[in-house]
Amino acid sequence: MTIGLVGPAVSAVLGKPEGVEIPVAVALAESVANLPAGPGWWYEPKFDGLRLVMHRTQETVKCQAPSGRTITGAWVDLAVAGQAALRPGTVLDGEAVVWTDGRLDPSAAQVRGNSTPRRASALAAEYPAYYAVWDCLAVDGVDLRDRPYVERRAALLEVLADVPPPIQPVPATDDVDVALVWFEQLRRQGIGGVVAKRATSPYRPARVWQKVRHSVTMDAEVVGYVGPAVQPQRVAVRLPDGRSVLSQAVIAQVAAEMARHITESGPGRRARTDAGEAYTTTGQGLMVEVVAGTARHSTVAVICVR
User: Fold this and answer.
1) Which of 103, 142, 176, 227 could disulfide-pair with 233, CB 3.0 to 4.6 Å?
2) Does 57 share its domain with 200?
3) Which is the catalytic residue, given 16, 46, 197, 211?
4) Domain ranges, residue 70
5) Has 211 been annotated as catalytic?
């Protein structure tokens, strides 16, 4: 098992400073039934919260959602920690998570992520956040996305070597047996599964990783909604196979995120799913994670906004 520093030192990785354009187009993971095994695979526990890209500029810290939307106001405690501890020109990718009674609490993270600036401070005290970091996209303004995973991992551990919580790197191993132990034993702590990454893989805005979850899920694009725009009751999603279906009832935290997206995308038009159910269209760019086991039916269960 190898969890510590891997690959060459950061000084050997850095090249000509080119910067990372913000917002970052994020890398994604494909859901698979079984963990890949063999030489060249690395594994990380899957922390369930809200995806967050953190960019430490010369003056401040900016937090970005996968959609590109700025979400710094909802995660002020993490931004303050990043400004105090990170070097300017650092760009990190990871998950904003909340722990409740020793378990990851995705619902609390959704509440934090959907908070208004007015509520953000109070919620930060009630649900303090942690930043579980799994990738380093830039160091000192140098773009590392073309470098292999193991070199970016080395950069990540060096950058965070003296950084205290709430910002911490996720564990990683190249031992599939250790990853399987994580998959089974960390479930009670709310860890959602394991993510597998090729040692040689660069960081790309595509499905370059693989993930195994305790409940098999898939990513789907939101194409519309049912109910009022300010509080959608169900959402229409397009599944990877091209089918459009409606969700089950949308939980309040997801509905708040939908409402913001609908407001930003403007008025939609009437449309119907493949089963003939009516909905109002909305703009592109909003992804959700749905339970794959329900995909054979006319509705799906939305887990969270991605």
Assistant:
1) 227
2) yes
3) 46
4) 39-213
5) no
